[in-house]
Amino acid sequence: MKYSGILRIGFKLLVNDKPKFSALLIGITFAVFLMVQMTAMFAGILNRAYSTVSNIGATMWIVDPAVNTPTTSIPMPDYLLDAVRSMDGVSYAVPLFVGGAQLKLGDGTIQSVSVIGLDDTSLFGRPELEQGNILDLYADNSFVVVKDVEFPKLQNPKIGTTFELNDHRGIISGIAKVNANGLVGVPTLYTTYSRAIEYIPTTRFTISYVLAQAKNDAAIPGIKREVAKFGYLAMTKDEFNERIANYYIFQTGIGTNILLMTIISFIVGLSISGQTFYTFILENIDKFGALKAIGAKGRELVYMILFMATFTSLTGYGLGIGLVTAVISISRARIPNYAAMITFWNLELAFGMVVLIAGISSYFGVRKVLKIEPFDIFRG
């Protein structure tokens, strides 16, 4: 390799100064840790905010234009369901009810729950059962409970457990599992659509969402236009998730606070690593001058400094990712409702910021080294 010799010298120069090298690594490691931890928490919040959409699995959602999240549905009239079913390009459409209720347990404890009412005919969107038979949902007063992190709030019910919901008797006929836990911190019950609107007080309109399946992707734009004529909004699953994400990012304080903490983490990492790296260059300025005196070109010294900054930054990046992975893994094992999750986008964000830290740190070091005159070094 053309510059292998000068890079080897730079590596030894860097690691031999253990205090400065350790300070650089610590600064970058904790900056990466904070950046990834903050964004991982936000990713976990969004993943739980998507839970209803992800668990139901419908490809198209028809909603009131004012709806931003699945848990804040606005009831729609029954004629909309019939209209959607009659549209060209629609394979099928079913109603979905999403609502909240107060549930009275056997010992008198009151617990808020989220109730999802599935289409009576198809039970479209039904969860996968761990215990019980989904057809038992058609029995009188029957409900399926989701076994997730909120399950213990219902005192770990079993099949046959009874409760009272808005003065109606209910019975657990199945225990289910879902892909994503909810965000609002309450247990989830599934039942039929007709039972949900009977047990839970509603307005004269009862449909929370219309779930539709297009015959093919080409039919989706036409369905959206037809639905818009009725004053409602048709979205694909991905579009609904994007709408939910935009709500939490731009219309709540969550996105702003996470962004602020990420920026602060970046500034802390940049200030620590930049100052430490620049101090390292100043303390070793005589060595750079000596290299220049024996024939090292300015370009070679630039490569040397870039290598040192890049090596330190990438090492700190790896240590930071390892640290945050360990913290999240331990937290999930100890705290069941811990929501943080590492995704590609927050890893890429942290990597981009680390590269930026390396670039800025290198810039000041390069400026200083290029101004070195060997004569001044030896004269000193």
How many E strands? 10
Shape: elongated
Written as H for each helix and E for each strand, in order along the chain, the element string is HHHEHEEEEEEEHEHEHHHHHH
User: How helix-rich are the residues, as a percent range?
Assistant: 40-55%
The biggest beta sheet reads: 6 strands, mixed, barrel
Output the number of helix runs. 12
Query: What portion of residues belong to β-strands?
Result: 15-25%
End-to-end Cα distance, whole Å, is 34 Å
Strand order in space, largest sheet: 2-3-8-5-7-6
What is the radius of gyration?
30 Å
Structural class: alpha+beta
* Integer count of domains: 2
What are the segments in which pLDDT stays under 50 over at least 5 consecutive residues?
Answer: none
* Global mean pLDDT: 86
Oligomeric assembly: single chain
